[in-house]
Write a structure and sequence with these properties.
By secondary structure, the chain is α+β, with helices and mostly antiparallel strands. The protein has 2 domains: 2-116, no CATH class; 161-279, Immunoglobulin-like (Sandwich), CATH 2.60.40. It contains 3 helices and 10 strands, in the order H-H-H-E-E-E-E-E-E-E-E-E-E. The strands form 3 sheets. Strands 3, 4, 7, 9 and 10 form a 5-stranded antiparallel beta sheet that branches. It has a 3-stranded antiparallel beta sheet with strand order 1-2-8, with no helix packed on it. Helix 1 (2-52) packs antiparallel against helix 2 and helix 1 (2-52) packs parallel to helix 3.
Amino acid sequence: MFIIYGLSAVLVILFIFFMVEWSKNKKHIAAIHQEKELLTQELSELSTNYDQLKTSNDTLNEKLMVEQEKIATLLDEMKKFRDNSYAEINKYKREIGTLKTVLRSYVVQIDSLNRLNQQLVQENTQVKQQMDWVRERNTKLENEQKSMQKVIAIASALTAENFTVVPINKKGKEVNWKKCFQLRADFVIPKNVTAQRGTHIVYLRLKRPDDKVIAFSEKSFFKFQNASLTYSAKREFEYEGERLEMAIYWPNDGSLVKGKYTAELFCDNENIGSTEFYLK
């Protein structure tokens, strides 16, 4: 009986010990499982954080993909883990800590690259604005130069004043059209200090009442703008910038008729004067 009582007591003690250890082991497994769930959640958040990192640097993108692959591998391993080893849990904690450290370093690098890119974009914008300003100023200067050249061209062009045409006889006296020996075109080239000095040619162009131009000859043409015009008479003269009185004579070839005529003067590719006169 004593032996039976002794064995019963031992069994009771063993049962109690077993229940205590079983309870401890259950709590241990529950704690490991909770740790596993937390680590799995951390890995998922890490994966999301890596996904959110944006950069245009190809080398850095390749490194980020390597870290993503490590996270995916750890997640697969944790699915197979049976919640029975703190050593495994600690290993995963160390690897997750390393991943977090690497993530922070990449965040710093990407932030630095983004700031650098923003600085470069700002500098490029400033350079573009400066280039636009330079182009705009150059265009403005070119337009001003063209305008100035036009003003200078206009100012330097010769002009004719007091332009008249009269029919005269051989003695130079004014007569009617029937007794006309020749037509005399009188005009004045005023003083112009900006005009080109040297030899010039002035062309006289006479148009009859029927709008027919009186030609000096069949080959009497001169260039005006982009056209060839017929002239009635011409004269070469030297101009030195001072006032110059001139006359051009057209010999009557019998083509005169009664009526209103138009006379024009051309010099240096410019129409420098025009007038109307009547032959009675």
